[in-house]
Records
---
Amino acid sequence: GAVLVYQINQANGTLTAASGSPFVSSLAAPGNATSNVTVDPSDLFAFATNQFVPSLAGFNFNPPVNSGNLTELTPWETPTGANPVWITVDPLDRFVYVSNNTDGTISGWALGAGGALTPIFDSPFALPVSGTPGAIAIDPSGRFLYVTDGAHSQVVGYTIDRSAGATAGALTQMTAPFPTDPGGGPFAVSIDPSGHFLYVGNSFLGTVSMFTTVPTTGFLTAVGAGTVSYAGAVGVNAIAIE
């Protein structure tokens, strides 16, 4: 039930615990299963999901920012859907999204001054029937959001309303989900920094599904045979791209 913070030695990469770490992420800690953490693009706020509460916790970085010391936002805990497993902030620093694995939805908030979160119009947004959302990836332009659906072995794509109106941040599902390896139970998803390629880790198979993106629509097209295999134990739980 906590967020651990470390300072990185810029010379050799070693980690040293920051002052005050670990930081409790829920009033229900311990046992709340803090599952995912992210920092917004402006490096002002940190957010973490609590699977068993369920909620997200928000923190400020105390000055100096490079100290890594965190202070709870007000309110500290924001309710989510059931079993929140992933949280992300869009690259334009406008919206926060959480995938709720058990109830098959994505919750969304507008990110305001001081880290204030305001529910997005029509949030939460449903996946296809009986979907189980996992990790979320947003393209670098902030136009398209993708979430894995482990129950149906697919990626569900949405367009993000980037207007300044009342529906800002709302998600509109693309016409059809994009299939991954059958029976693969996809969870991890990541987009390369150029926004041209998307990769999905299949938890039940030793494979990674590969796609190219259409810049104008966000639609995905499988690369070659669609997957690449790797040696060793099955289960791709996270993907990082340099």
Note: The CA atoms of residues 158 and 172 lie 5 Å apart.
---
Amino acid sequence: FVRPIPYPVVDAGEDTIICHQTFAQLYGSTDGNFYQWLPSPALSNNSILDPIANPVETTSYVLYATENTRGCPKPSFDTVTVRVLPDIIASAGRDTAVVVGQPLRMNASGGETYLWSPSAGLSDATIADPVITYFESSSGIQYKVLVYNEAGCSDSAYIRVKVFETVPSVFVPNAF
């Protein structure tokens, strides 16, 4: 009577997304009695089921497992990919000036979602390009925008807005 020996069951876990210069916890499982993650340079420990991965670029990790207590070492494997998002380069636009009563469209960039502060007077503080109209002059209002990527990581940028009562005038001599 010949009894076949099954291959070990291996699960490397779900693919994940991380932010630039962060880490991911891997969650592997197996019924094999020997296991190892490859490639190992960016792992905290390649011979445990739940190492911490700190890749600098998108990397696929393979969990290899064998079962050799039943008479024959049979290998199995599964793969998980850790996708590393690029660094966020947040921008709120250039400092600017506007006249009372004239609408100003903000212009942030660098991410998927945005959050402006202070939000008072903005048409929508959660978009890249909200509009605001000022009703009094100011020597400068500073706005901060938090810029988020798809993994929820953020960076910030600032813009200063000066508000004038009338159009600033420039003296142009008419005689030399």
Note: The two ends are 114 Å apart (CA to CA).
